[in-house]
């Protein structure tokens, strides 16, 4: 797969430029153009009213502002793979892409005029587009480097929409699956923290009142990482504000920083590691649709991981607030803590191959996890105590 190519040049108004613009329109409409032999090469915004070549030539010849020339190209095998074979497919693509390109150039949408022709050159079919404003609002023809990048991205985004859509769905499914699995781990960590707190209270009571202390924690022995997460969650719970919403953005800076650090460790949990790796790969695949530079791919991955850490940190803040309420609510006799259900790698891959089935599964799990009336009442009571 090759990155879609978008080339742009312009002609400022001048004594001979109008004639050269008109000659360019004649060239793209007659020399190798699809439909050129029957005089139907040009097409524009309205599929019912194709532009007349002579009228377009007259318009660009007499125009008093810049006239831009674009070449929008694909590799032939990519065009076939992505479904851009018939002329109607290219026309539809142009009608989606050209307004986006004009917007990135800062042109007035109501003033934009354009005409295009398809050339089926062997190996690289491409569109020739002539673009101008009537009346002109932009007087500078040359685009800044940032504007050129946005023009290329707008073209690539429209071309690759059929490819990008399943990748975006996969990314969303993975992200949501990671949030569900992270919440499982956090609930397990809350159970461990509550058991550890109950054990410490019992030890203090034993020292002062000769009561028998409980022995080992109930349930399977937690891993070192699970013990660390429970300990850090317990510490974070003690630093939570006494009131207010449990929202990461509203937390003191030290709580935010610690929640993000805990999120980093949580994403290393064995039940999340495989999905995290698939998430990273998917992000790089999406970014790779628009660039082949490793630096740009790294930046895209880092940005996506920051976003994921922030979402997980929000879960951690809520878990710490829940633990804080449970501790302040009085002694709790913990039930046997279940083992953490790992995120099955095979199931995740299945989700990626069948997005609709995955969404149904996510909805089913959400319904199963919906709180009961008793849980809602307990949470309301907890907020009242805050």
TrEMBL record:
<feature type="region of interest" description="Disordered">
    <location>
        <begin position="362"/>
        <end position="386"/>
    </location>
</feature>
<dbReference type="Pfam" id="PF18555">
    <property type="entry name" value="MobL"/>
</dbReference>
<protein>
    <submittedName>
        <fullName>Uncharacterized protein</fullName>
    </submittedName>
</protein>
<dbReference type="InterPro" id="IPR041073">
    <property type="entry name" value="MobL"/>
</dbReference>
<dbReference type="InterPro" id="IPR048102">
    <property type="entry name" value="MobP3"/>
</dbReference>
